[in-house]
Write a structure and sequence with these properties.
Layout lengths: L1 E4 L2 E10 L2 E10 L2 E11 L2 H17 L5 E2 L10
Parallel strand pairs: 4-5
Antiparallel strand pairs: 1-2, 2-3, 3-4
Length: 78
């Protein structure tokens, strides 16, 4: 799934991970889709979407320069 959000293009992808699913997200700039700005993963789609919302808000306000999103890499095995 891909969507546009405040000058950024967001992609989500689900993959099997230890008998469960893991949801990856990637944020690229709308002007240059080859420029990966931020990425991460979460154990649920809802957590991935929330992480993207927070990361786009931080990127738009200049609080972060991008990179791997924090707090979204919890293990699905716990």
């Amino acid at each position: 799934m891909t969507q546009s959000l405040a000058g950024y293009v967001v992609s989500f992808q689900a993959e099997p991970f230890y008998k469960r699913m893991r949801y990856h997200w990637m944020i690229c700039r709308a002007q240059n889709l080859d420029e990966l700005v931020s990425w991460g993963h979460a154990p649920t789609q809802e957590l991935a979407e929330k992480a993207v919302q927070n990361q786009v808000k931080d990127l738009s306000s200049g609080l972060t320069q991008g990179g791997r999103g924090t707090g979204t890499s919890k293990s699905a095995t716990h």
